[in-house]
Amino acid sequence: MVEKASAAVGGNGRVATVERPADIRNVVLVGHSGSGKTTVVEALAVATGAVTRAGRVEDGTCVSDYDDIEQRQHRSVQLSVIPVYWDGIKINLLDTPGYADFVGELRAGLRAADAALFVISAAAGATGVSGQTLALWEECAAVGMPRALVITHLDAARADFEEMARTCRDILGGGASESMLPLHLPVYGPKSADGHRPVTGLIDLLTQRVFDYSAGEHTRTEPTAEQAELIDSARGRLIEGIIAESEDETLMDRYLAGEEIDLTTLVTDLERAVARGSFHPILIAAPPPEGARQGLGMVEILDLATRGFPTPAEHPVAASCPSDGSGPTPLTCDPAAPLAAEVIRTASDPYVGRLSLVRVFSGTLRPDDMVHVSGHGPDVERGHDLDERVGAVSAPFGKQQRPLGQAIAGDIACVTKLGHAETGDTLSAKDTPLLIEPWPMPEPLLPVAIRAHSKADEDKLSQGLGRLVTEDPTVRLEQNGQTHQLVLWCLGEAHREVALERLRSRFGVQVDVVDHRVALRETFATTAIGRGRHVKQSGGHGQYAICEIEVAPLPGGSGIEFVDKVVGGVVPRQFIPSVEKGVRAQAARGVVTGCPLVDVRITLYDGKAHSVDSSDAAFQTAGALALREAAAAAKLNLLEPIAEVRVTVSDDYVGAVLSDLSSRRGRVLGTEPVSAGRTVIRAEVPELELSRYAIDLRSISHGAVQFTRAYTRHEAMPAPIADTVRAQARASA
Q: How many CA atoms lie less than 13 Å away from 358 in the CB half-sphere?
C-alpha cells in the first residue's frame, strides 16, 4: 500500500543510496505500441510517491516520454528509466518503445533488466499479442528471464478479460494453462452510455479478498456472494498451477487428498516460481482517476516486483577476459568485487555532452573512477581498448539526472565524460579488463540515401552522422563506392523519420532524402569490335593514337581481363599499358548507363602511333573511345544484384508473403517450420525490388515477421526493365 513507498530523493536532491544488490529490482516493460506501457510506468511512479500526478505526452508532463520527438509523435521512441521505491526496495522501471522500428532501445532495456512485464491491451483482442511480442517472449524464455503479464484497457467497449487471458495462454504459453494464470479477477462498475465498463476493483484469488479502487485508494472489502462464486471457480485452478511449479513434490499429493494448503506456503511457492521463470502471473492495471493517488493494480504489481521478481544476484551475466581470451565466466553481483558494467545506451545532452546509461553487473562505480573500456572490435581509435576517467554518476529519472554517490552491483546509473565508450562496450576495473558479450541487434534493412542540404550542413554532416550512429547502434552508415551515395540504413519508416529529425534538431544538420540507387553493372552479351581514334593537330604538340580492340563476354565474376595481341610494334610497347589504363577507366565509368562494366575480355590487336605526337594520355583516350564504340555495336546486358532473403513469418501470412515475393520477381528456394506457428521462407530477390521491402513486409504480416538479406551475385536484368533503366539514364545525362 501507499505506506510502503519510501522517499527516493533527499532534500539536497541526492538519491537515496542503495547498499545491497538484494534491495534492487530491474524491471523492463515491453509490449505492442499503444498497449499502455508508459501509462503503467506513470501510474507506478504516482503510487510510490515518486511523482505527484501522472502526466501526458501531449502536455510534456510525462516522466517517460519526455523527448521533444516523442511529444510531437505521441509515442515512445527511446528507453526511459524511472526508479521508484517500494517497501524499502528500489525498482528501476525501464519503459521501452513498442514500435518495431525502435527495437534497439527495447533490447537495451532487456539487457539492463532482470525481469520483464509484458503489457497487453485487452482492447486489441487477439491482435494485442503480436508476432513481435511472441518473438520477445521466446527470446526472454531462452535466457531464463522471469516474466509476468499486465492486461490494460479493460474498460474498452469490447474488452474481455477471460478471452484476453486465454489468448495469452494460447499464443505465449503455447496452451500451457497451468503456468500462465491470473492472480486477480476484475470488478466492473456500471456500464456507461458509450459502452465502457470501468474496472473499479480486483478480486484476489489467493487471499479471497476484494481490493476496491473506486475512490482512488487501495482498500480491502469482503467479497459478495456473486464474487465468491467467481473465486471458487478460478481459485482452485490457480492453486493447482502454483503447486505444479512448487519445489515440494509432496504438495500436489496433499492437495489432491483434500488437505488445505496454507496461504503462506502458496504465496512463497508462487514467488519462487515467478523468480525461476516457470510461472507467469497475469495482472490487471488501469491508470488512477484524476487527482487520485493510486491506479488500479499498481500495489499488486509493486508487490510482485519486490517479492516475486529476482534480485540482480539471481540473474547472472558472463564475461570474458579480452587480454588472454579466457572465459566466459559468470560475474559475481558483489559491490566489493572488481568492476564490470555495460553501456546499454548512449545519448547526447546539450549541457553535459555524451551521457552513458550503464548497468553495473559487478563491483561499484564511483565518480571520477578510472575504468577500462573494452569493445567488440580491434579499432582502438573508436575506444574499444583504452582507459578513461568517468565524470559524474547520476540516477536517471526520465529527463532528470539526480546526483548519485555510487552505483553498486545490480544498479543502473548514468555517467558522463566517457568520450569513447559506445553502446555495448564494457567498463571494467583498470587492472582486470573484462568483456561482456552484448545481445545481438537486428540488421537495419531500409536504405535512406541522403545529402547535405547546404554547404553549411555539409561541413557539419560528418560529425552529426558520427554522433547519430554512436547513439543508435541500429543505424548503419554506408558510403557506397559504386553509386557514390551516402546511405543511412534504418529499421523502418518511423526509425528513419526519427533519425533525420535528430540530425536536424539535436545535431543541427539539415539533409535531403534522395532516391536510393542500387549498384547495377553492365556486361557484353555478344562479341564486338571497336576502334578508338584520337588524332588532334591544332598547333603546338599534337595528339595521335589509334587502337583497335575486341571485346568478348566472360562468365560472371571474371572481372576485366586485358589481353595484348599486338604484333609488329604497330602500338609501341610503352603505350600498351596506357591503352589498358584507358579501357579500365572507361569500364569503371560505364559505357551506357554509367554503371561499371564487368566480366569481359578486352583484346588489343592493332593500332597506329606517331613518332612525335603519340603519348600516354592520347592512348588512354583512344582506349576509352574504342571501348565505347564496341559497346555501341554490341548487345549489352544490364546486371542487377540478387539478394538471398530469409523471411520468418507467422503461418497465417505465409501465402501472402509468397505471393508478394513472386510479384517482386523472387524465386522461392524453400520453406521450413522453425517453431510452433512460424515458418522460414528462403528466396532470391533482385535488390531493386527490396528498397521498401522492410515497410511492405511489415504491412503484409501486421508486424508478425522478421527478415534478413544477403548479397549473392549479379545476374542479367530482364530486357523490358533494363530498357527502362537505360532510358532513365539517358534522360538524366
A: 38
Phi, psi of 404 (to 5 degrees): -130, 130
The pLDDT, as a whole number, for residue 139 is 81
Angle, vertex CA 316, rays to CA 313 and CA 319, nearest 5: 130
**Which residues partner with 719 through β-bridges?**
none
Cα angle 39, 128, 103; round to 5: 70
Percent of the chain with pLDDT over 70: 90
pLDDT value of residue 381: 43
Q: What pLDDT, on a 0 to 100 scale, did the predictor assign at position 195? A: 65
Q: Using one digit for the tens of pLDDT, what is the confidence trace for 543-570?
A: 999 999 999 999 988 999 999 999 988 9
User: For 606-618, how does the pLDDT look when each residue is reduced to its tens digit (9 = 90+)?
Assistant: 999 998 889 999 9
Q: Are 596 and 636 in contact (CB under 8 A)?
A: no
* Residue 287 preceded by cis peptide, ω within 30: no
What is the pTM (predicted TM-score) of this model?
A: 0.85
The span from the CA of 170 to the CA of 162, in Å, is 12
Question: What element of type H or E holds 524?
Answer: strand 521-524
Cell of 704: 508478425
Q: Which of these, 426, 399, 301, 497, lies nearest to 79 by C-alpha position?
A: 399
Q: How far is CA 158 from CA 122, 134, 155, 208, in A?
A: 8, 23, 8, 27
- Min mean pLDDT across 297-306, 375-384, 500-509 is at 375-384
Distance of CA 693 to the CA centre of its chain: 17
Per residue in 435-486, pLDDT tens? 888 777 888 989 999 999 999 998 899 989 988 888 888 899 999 888 889 9
Work out whether the CA dihedral 450, 454, 460, 464 comes out positive or negative.
Answer: negative
* Residues 186/179, Cβ–Cβ less than 8 Å: no
Helix (H) / strand (E) element for 73: namely helix 68-73
Among 172, 153, 149, 168, smallest CA distance to 29 is for 149
Say if strands 80-86 and 89-95 run parallel, antiparallel, or are unpaired. Answer: antiparallel
Helix, strand and coil in the chain, % to nearest 5:
30, 30, 40
- Beta strand spans in 161-287 (E): 184-188, 199-204, 209-212, 219-221, 282-284
725/712 Cα distance (integer angstroms) = 22
Q: Rounded to an integer, what distance in angstroms lies between the CA atom of residue 202 and that of residue 222?
A: 11
pLDDT tens, residue by residue, 180-202:
999 999 998 887 776 677 888 99
How high does pLDDT run on average in the chain?
A: 86
Radius of gyration of the chain from its Cα atoms, rounded to whole angstroms: 32
Q: Are 619 and 570 in contact (CB under 8 A)?
A: no
Grid coordinates 499503444 are at which residue?
34
Cβ burial 454-493 (10 Å sphere, 16+ → b, else e): eeebeeebeebbebbbbbbbbbbeeeeeebebbbbbbbbe
Residue 77 has pLDDT above 80, yes or no: no
* DSSP letter string, 188-223: E----TTS---EEEEEETTTTEEEE-TTSS-EEEPP
CA nearest 285: which of 269, 266, 270, 304? 304
> By three-state DSSP, how is residue 656 classified?
helix
What is the per-residue pLDDT for 11?
38
- Residue 18: name the closest of 79, 82, 91 by CA: 91
How far is Cα 495 from Cα 475, in angstroms, rounded to an integer?
9
Segment 255-267 shows an average pLDDT of: 86
Return the C-alpha cell found at 386: 583504452
φ, ψ (nearest 5 deg) of residue 550: -120, 130
Beta pairing partners, 148: 117
Q: Are 152 and 285 in contact (CB under 8 A)?
A: yes
CA distance 94 to 107: 11
